[in-house]
Amino acid sequence: xxxxxxxxxxxxxxxxxxxxxxxxxxxxxxxxxxxxxxxxxxxxxxxxxxxxxxxxxxxxxxxxxxxxxxxxxxxxxxxxxxxxxxxxxxxxxxxxxxxxxxxxxxxxxxxxxxxxxxxxxxxxxxxxxxxxxxxxxxxxxxxxxxxxxxxxxxxxxxxxxxxxxxxxxxxxxxxxxxxxxxxxxxxxxxxxxxxxxxxxxxxxxxxxxxxxxxxxxxxxxxxxxxxxxxxxxxxxxxxxxxxxxxxxxxxxxxxxxxxxxxxxxxxxxxxxxxxxxxxxxxxxxxxxxxxxxxxxxxxxxxxxxxxxxxxxxxxxxxxxxxxxxxxxxxxxxxxxxxxxxxxxxxxxxxxxxxxxxxxxxxxxxxxxx
Length: 369
Known about the structure:
Blueprint: H1 15-27, H2 40-48, H3 52-61, H4 69-102, E1 108-110, H5 111-118, E2 130-133, H6 139-148, E3 152-153, E4 168-172, E5 179-183, H7 196-202, E6 204-205, E7 211-212, H8 215-228, H9 235-247, H10 252-261, H11 265-277, H12 285-293, E8 297-301, E9 304-308, H13 313-319, H14 330-339, H15 344-366
Parallel strand pairs: 2-5
Antiparallel strand pairs: 1-2, 3-4, 4-5, 6-7, 8-9
Helix pairs in contact: 1-9, 3-4, 8-9, 8-10, 8-11, 10-12, 11-12, 11-13, 14-15
């Protein structure tokens, strides 16, 4: 595989698009850093991948150069918009978190909303919605609490039987229009088995009484998120993992323990291996990937991609990310997913649950309810 700027790019469906991913990750300060000034074309791609605010922050601090003044202004505007949207979202979250506390419902921010508070600087991490996790047994109570404030949902909620495979519901908060993805799980049942009681117990409450996951829990949660999408992830998703690992100074040995507890060994092995290819640095990560993946790991050495291991995991990581915006056949995604679960039966059970839900939904629809 041809090296790019002293490194390698992933062997996805298109070398050109994969090259752009690597260039964006480098511009974000990983995989050896940027080759040169950020030009207008790459800035546009950064906007599409929602990395504009982070790159703007790097330009402002002098660690990333831009090719022209128009590109600088574009990035500055993106960061200003990010700061504004973040303030709006935070204010919209206040009454929701308050009503959840009043009703005794624990809640933990996930992904971008949590990362923006913990490892990113002000205006570095943009987001289109807020991910919030509540205990599964209180999920419908939490939805009712949000609706009591005037929130509206995006899915049909009055069919509890046909909606049961869902693990999150989208809610639009009143006034600001902020969208909240209210989760009762990190991924569809039964792909993985996170220890939710421990996740809530380890969550860190911040000064405003809003909780975020413990850093190692969050890293494995990001691995589960990437795996449920069969590693078809954006540049921002990759950078999230790299930033969390670096700025939170994660211990790979703890990640191995958490992934094992969550029945997410292969998912986390693949996630670490993918991040290694995009510049994940630090002692212990290669060993962690090998330990979790049964020897499967992908590393970059002297411009060559090296794969090892069995069971299809190494080949899967070597080919990721996949469609990059296309919609591959469900069958191919299912095959990938079986490789990213600790036992193929988990993926099979998930597929059967989806099929049963679709049949039930169609049946109810024919009956007019």
